[in-house]
Design a protein that fits this description.
With 400 residues, this protein is mostly helical. It has one domain: MFS general substrate transporter like domains (Growth Hormone, Chain: A, Up-down Bundle). The protein contains 17 helices and 2 strands. A two-stranded antiparallel sheet has the order 1-2. A hairpin with a 2-residue loop joins strand 1 and strand 2. Helix 1 runs antiparallel to helix 8, helix 3 runs parallel beside helix 5 and helix 4 runs antiparallel to helix 6. It starts with 8 loop residues before the first helix and ends with a strand.
């Protein structure tokens, strides 16, 4: 199908719904991992190690998954990734030790790596050029819907019925996502028959236009995920131990972030198609930092919730321009591969973030971590604002 053809409504809806189901199951565990590790006699270091395991394996698997989506097709990679997710949730249900849970989170990263590059590449195959960010926003909105519902439902399920009921519900979400993809998502890309060698990939990368802009996309993805992952383990224990929140209150605040992300992803997804990638990207990054500012300045749940609502809007604004930039300047047969590299960069940041927590846990208090995260996002805003220049005649690059 031509890249300029209108995307099929059923496929777009299926992509968004699959992301919603997958992220619901994934985020149901987020407020509870800390408590689960505590039940095994472990603490923030074990939680951080599990985050590192997930994002490290995700980073390793994302480029091969994207490359495979270009070579054998989007659909088989998506289906394989979702099938692996079902098996991981079964493992969560049965895991009986902290080390086994860490191992399972590493395995989850492997299978999750193929989902987003595959799905966003389907959007790139089907969406017209002036609606790419809008459709990416819709897929992100599906993920945000899951992120909105998941933490709150997870917290309530755990409080009312326990960990096993939570695990079974998450596995049900994963099965539903797999069945929906199997029935509704068709192949959108004619696979290329080329040599699978690493040398061939390096030659293809050197031949890509505007590599400097692609590298900047990777840097921003890395930096944004680094800051979020650096704060996340500290925030969980800060909420329970200092703010004395319950799992349901923590889930509510996290769901507030997801609500803002979801609404803005659907409502504002096309903004960068109309105003340009750069201004929307810079604004989104600036708003994304609000969560770290709020955690630094406030202890009242209402103020922290407000800062998370603003940050969710920022996330919804900055991510579609990043992926749309890739689709703008990457040839059709390479989009999943480059999107896989973007996912790898983000996951490397997410791996390093918890690693820094483990390294500096004895000397770093949570508020110091929140201040550092605010500063890191400020650097990203300046980098994007100064280095990225707007497109000119279809080309995008860096400021001289």
């Amino acid at each position: 199908m031509s890249r300029q053809a209108s995307p099929t409504g059923g496929i777009l809806a299926a992509l968004a719904a699959c992301m919603a189901l997958q992220w619901t199951g994934f985020s149901m565990f987020l407020p509870l991992f800390a408590l689960r590790f505590e039940s095994f006699g472990a603490g923030v270091q074990a939680l951080s190690a599990s985050d590192m395991a997930y994002f490290f394996t995700f980073a390793l698997a994302a480029p091969p998954a994207g490359w495979l989506a270009d070579r054998i097709g989007r659909r088989p990679v998506i289906l394989l990734s979702l099938t692996g997710g079902v098996m991981v949730y079964l493992g969560y249900l049965l895991a009986g030790s902290a080390w086994l849970l860490i191992l399972l989170r590493g395995l989850a990263g492997v299978f999750a790596a193929g989902v987003l590059p595959g799905m966003v590449s389907v959007v790139g195959d089907l969406a017209p050029a002036d609606r790419r960010a809008q459709w990416i926003g819709a897929v992100n909105g599906g993920a945000a819907a899951g992120y909105t519902v998941g933490p709150l439902v997870g917290g309530l399920l755990h409080e009312q019925f326990g960990y096993r009921a939570l695990s079974a519900a998450a596995m049900g979400m994963a099965v539903a996502a797999l069945l929906l993809a199997l029935l509704q998502i068709r192949e959108s890309h004619a696979p290329a028959r080329r040599s699978p060698s690493a040398m061939a990939w390096r030659e293809e990368w050197r031949a890509l236009p505007a590599r400097s802009a692609l590298v900047l996309v990777m840097v921003i993805s890395f930096g944004a995920m680094l800051t979020y992952a650096f704060v996340q383990p500290q925030f969980m224990f800060y909420a329970y131990d200092i703010l004395l929140w319950t799992p349901s209150r923590l889930g509510l605040v996290m769901s507030g972030y997801g609500i803002s992300f979801m609404v803005c992803a659907f409502a504002l997804g096309r903004l960068s198609d109309r105003l340009g990638r750069k201004p929307v990207l810079v604004l989104g990054l600036a708003l994304f930092s609000a969560q770290f500012v709020g955690l630094t300045l406030f202890r009242q749940a209402g103020w922290i919730m407000g800062s998370f609502l603003i940050a969710g809007m920022g996330n919804a604004l900055y991510d579609p321009p990043l992926s749309a930039l890739i689709l703008d300047i990457t040839p059709p047969g390479h989009t999943a591969s480059v999107l896989g590299l973007k996912s790898m960069a983000g996951s490397m940041g997410s791996t390093l973030g918890p690693g820094l927590v483990v390294l500096f846990a004895s000397i770093l208090n949570p508020r110091m971590g929140f201040v550092i995260a605010t500063g890191l996002v400020a650097v990203l805003v300046l980098t994007a604002g100064l280095a990225l220049r707007p497109p000119s005649r279809g080309r995008i690059g860096l400021q001289p």
